[in-house]
Amino acid sequence: QVTLVESGGGLVQPGGSLRLSCAVSGSMFSISRMAWYRQAPGKRRGLVATIHSDTSTSYVDSVKGRFTISRDDAKKTVYLQMNALTPDDTATYYCNLWFTRDYWGQGTQVIVSS
Q1: Nearest CA-CA partner of 5 in 18, 22, 25, 28
Q2: pLDDT tens string 27-63
Q3: For labelling, which of 4, 66, 71, 96 has a CA lying 20 to 30 Å from the CA of 53?
Q4: H or E element: which one contains 109?
Q5: Among 35, 31, 40, 11, which residue's Cα sits nearest to residue 22?
Q6: Are residues 5 and 106 in contact, defined by beta-carbon separation less than 8 angstroms?
């Protein structure tokens, strides 16, 4: 059984920061690819950032230089540090684990507004 639980979302002003966390149950965390996706109202879910088991990372162009994905294998947790937030970052953020199949969390809402 694999479960993913996101936390850390909320309301933040433009230019502000948030750190999202995703706690994972399951023994395959350390060898799994982890990712953050987001879905804005009326839009499709899209990939934001990826981190592999070797800690290599990749980002969608719109968040490069502002967001940082990281992982703590001892805590089975993946993080998304988000800086310089803009209203365009408003979305529900989902944690994703891939290990032979996709696993998803329930999502955490981020609202960037003054």
Answers
A1: 22
A2: 888 889 999 999 999 999 999 999 999 999 999 999 9
A3: 66
A4: strand 108-112
A5: 35
A6: yes
